[in-house]
Amino acid sequence: MIDETEFNKRNNLMTLRRYLQLTQREFIQQYFVDKDGKNEISLSTLSNLESKGGARLDDVLERISGQLNFDLSAFQMSTDKFMNMLVILVPRDTGYKNSQEETITNKNTNVNVLLNRLTNYFADEVFSGRLNPGDKIESDRNLAEIFEVGRSAIREALKVLDVLGLIEIRPGQGTFLCNDGSNFFMIPLSWSLFLNTEQIESMLDVRYALEVMAARMAASRVQNKNLEELNDIFFKMYAAYHEQDYNMFLELDMEFHLIISKCSENDVIHQLIRTIINFMRKVSSSGMVNMEQLQNIYDEHQKIYGFIIAHDQDGAENAMRVHLQASRKRYNFQ
Asked: What phi, psi does 136 have (nearest 5°)?
């Protein structure tokens, strides 16, 4: 039996490449080239991932979603919904600027602002009890009046929310909130981080609170099934540092934080930290340029790891707090 999720992921990988009008070779050159200009995956690997899937599929999809600034879970959508999302949120890059392209860019920016307003509006309606999961929402005409925008803008934003699974547009019947209440709140929280890209300081505050809590929770659950993964990522960092592969070391730094959030066994924390990590990759560049800073980062991670595997919740929490306070000073934002 075919795994539907696996099928969607590999099919959507190919769909994305074709939507961007790139050959496999061009796709690799766009997204999978290291600092020395060498391809990080081969043509045969990409071809196999598109046609058969494979062990590297999730890593490839995470890399792409981080660069294109959308959530990794989007690749699990059916292909028609995935394409609708691409058309709205990922404009094709033709390599030049003209009036049409600028119009598209402005349109996407406006849709993103409206998306943020709509998700907050629906969340308030649910919290107040005026709406429940599965209820029919106002018409696009009424929403246009509430938000003082055109009906076409409302329709575009609703299409995105439909793709994300927050609402369901039923032709001839109307538009309804999704039935899964937990899904309704977690997805907007995750996506709103991307839609408010100017609030970097707020993002860092959210990251601080979540990761300190995640470290404490991971230490209390250290015997869980994710421990092996935490061990693996730490020793990869150890090897990269001592082999002086510092680009790999800094990339594994992000993965280390993501695995700790996974060890918390709180899926909301894990998904939000995943989103924040993708966001940080998108909007920031590292200010870590000397050996002293790299040594400090390695030492800070070693302490966090040691406290977690020792079941020391206070130690893990404090070590993560010290690390995040220090790392905040090491970011240079573009």
From this structure: -80, 140
Residue (of 299, 290, 327, 293) closest to 238 by Cα position: 299
E strands in the chain: 167-170, 174-177, 284-286, 331-333
Q: How many domains does the chain have?
A: 3
| CA triple 159-161-166, angle to 5 deg | 140
Type and span of the H or E element at 67? helix 57-68
Residues 134 and 260 in one domain: no
| Residue 77 one-letter amino acid | M
Final residue in a domain of this structure, among 89, 107, 137: 89
Diameter of the chain measured on Cα atoms: 64
Residue 206 belongs to what domain range?
A: 199-333
The secondary structure element, H or E, covering residue 182 is helix 181-195
Q: Which amino acid is at 41?
A: I
pLDDT by position in tens, the chain (length 334):
457 888 889 888 988 888 887 888 888 988 898 877 888 888 888 888 988 888 899 999 988 888 887 778 888 888 877 877 776 667 655 333 333 333 333 444 456 677 778 877 887 788 788 888 889 999 999 999 988 888 888 888 888 777 666 788 888 898 998 776 555 555 555 555 555 555 667 777 888 999 999 999 999 986 667 788 888 999 999 998 888 887 788 778 888 999 999 999 888 888 788 777 766 665 554 444 567 778 889 999 999 999 999 999 999 999 999 999 888 777 654 4
Residue whose C-alpha is closest to residue 189's, from 206, 214, 213, 169: 206
One-letter amino acid for residue 286 of the chain: S
Nearest to 157 by CA among 140, 136, 180, 174: 140
